[in-house]
Design goal:
The structure is a homodimer. By secondary structure, chain A is α/β, with parallel strands linked by helices. The first copy, chain A, has ten helices and nine strands.
């Protein structure tokens, strides 16, 4: 691992790292905040167009992580430095838009293994490099989708799950359909493995309450996010969940910064 | 005034605005955060390379402004959309580097009137558009210099002054010498009007304590910022000041985010 930058922040350090990834076969970057005495770690998965910088610079999370002795790690959202067919043509596919799946389509299958990257490499880095064995997961939008899918499929790895404005039903929305077709191909059976609502319907549950915050003025709510599809599936499966609809808030980091303390307190219950 | 964007944030709104400026003869932008019931406003002046976005996205100030009922307004750091000789050649002169002076050199004197822009236009906008008559001023680096100079020369306009990592003695450091020569010319008498340390030596004081936070690991501390020059001048003039040297912190917004609550509480004393 290569330490790129260190900034003292509250009682800890904000840091930027790079390392060679065996999942993506590229150099990957992530950021961390490590308070004085961390008792556990939260993985933050970012949304479309983001990289390892967005959360750590904009969410204002360091104050609360510092107060509650929790570490955060923020991976990049896709491999970088490649030039696959169509990889850089749109904001919602390819670079900056890995969707936390293991791709199976030509070209992408050799590098876009973001599901494995988070589950195997980031979790291992937390354990071996940062000595963090208690791990939870959260994310925003595409990263909220990633947090739900990774958390539901691996409840023994991730102690708790939360999401801001998650894409909860990707196989039923334009962003998800485009990404899944591009990364997974036409076989929709494959898509189900990466669809939180479909996984919930199939009985993939988590022991702890799943916390979701969703702005009512989010421009993507009705077309892309489909929040209630997941809530309905949770209710049907008796999965404990708390979906907080926040009046007037949008899809931005201004919204996230307002409610990030609630998510950190949620995960703290399972990480301390 | 043209409202560009609005984002609900904590109990208020983060907004981005543009308006035609009579000082710069260009369209200027600024951002604001307005809590539910503001009692006063703080002007934030940003540093080199910044614009109206940096503070409002990175400082994490909205939480505290919301709690303490204070508005913030963050102007851009220079005129934009021009093409003056040398204006876009370096990060520390021209665009993004207005230094809050009234330029007197050819070309620049027609537009780079950032001192007047803040003192006349931003203060007037606060009063007339936002109904804020109680105003304080703070800033970072080049903007810390701007806050000190504007505050010391106009103690009846600005109720209190604070700064992060300010350039306190620009006529004695490379950043300031380059900027002042480019905007003000060779006559160093002119430079004194925009040099906080020299103004303090001349007896320009403020009734309230001036608060400064400075990181000890700031790479610009000894060559560009020269913090102790201003402290010495304050001591000689019996100006109340509190300069907090923060061990291990650098020049970044991670540092600012750690201590911004202290500055908001400082100004609150004079704005409530």
């Amino acid at each position: 691992m290569n330490l790129i930058k260190t900034h003292k922040t509250f009682n800890g350090v904000t840091q930027f790292w790079s390392h060679p990834s065996k999942s993506t076969k590229t150099e990957m970057k992530f950021s961390t905040f490590i308070p004085e005495n961390p008792t556990g770690a939260i993985i933050w998965l970012s949304g479309l167009t983001c990289n390892e910088e967005n959360f750590i610079t904009k969410a204002g999370a360091q104050k609360y992580l510092s107060e509650h002795n929790l570490m955060v790690i923020c991976p990049d959202t896709s491999p970088r430095g490649l030039n696959l067919p169509g990889e850089h043509d749109a904001y919602d596919f390819g670079s900056g838009a890995g969707f936390y799946v293991n791709a199976e389509t030509p070209g992408y299958k050799d590098h876009y293994k973001m599901y494995d990257y988070i589950l195997d490499e980031i979790v291992t880095i937390l354990k071996e490099e940062f000595k963090m064995t208690k791990v939870s997961i959260m994310g925003h939008s595409m990263g909220g989708h990633g947090a739900l899918v990774l958390g539901l499929r691996n409840p023994n790895v991730f102690r708790s799950i939360s999401a801001f404005s998650p894409i909860v039903h990707p196989s039923a929305c334009p962003w998800g359909e485009k990404a899944f077709k591009g990364y997974l191909g036409e076989n929709k059976e494959e898509w189900m493995k990466y669809d939180a609502t479909e996984l919930m319907k199939l009985g993939y549950k988590h022991d702890q309450k799943i916390l979701i915050h969703q702005g009512t003025h989010d421009e993507f709510l009705t077309k892309e996010l489909l929040t209630t599809d997941f809530i309905d599936a949770c209710v049907a499966q008796e999965q404990d969940q708390e979906a907080v609809f926040c009046e007037e808030y949008d899809h931005s980091y201004y919204f996230i910064s307002t409610f990030i303390e609630d998510h950190i307190l949620h995960h703290k219950k399972y990480l301390s």
